[in-house]
Amino acid sequence: MDQNSVTNPSGPKKVGKLTITVDRNLCIGAASCVAVAPKTFVLDNEAKAIILNTAEEEIPETIFDSARSCPVLAIILHDENGKQVFP
């Protein structure tokens, strides 16, 4: 894990044109994001989603699908202009 992941594992992390942030206060560890986008998310030792360095390997639609799959909408997506696009 690189230093960026250690210091800020829940984002914001820029992946292509998207910026991904996991709201750790909302995250309940359902792991639906991990099931949908395993190259983007994993649960840490607190059962909170963190963003992997391999997120660039995921297509944007898969990242959107993973955000939509979150039962508590803890994954926040912004476009390249900083506009929130989900939720």
UniProtKB/TrEMBL annotation:
A Pfam family: Fer4_15
Q: Which UniProt keywords apply?
A: Electron transport, Iron, Iron-sulfur, Metal-binding, Transport
Q: Name one GO molecular function term.
A: iron-sulfur cluster binding
What role does this protein play?
Ferredoxins are iron-sulfur proteins that transfer electrons in a wide variety of metabolic reactions.
Q: What is this protein called?
A: Ferredoxin
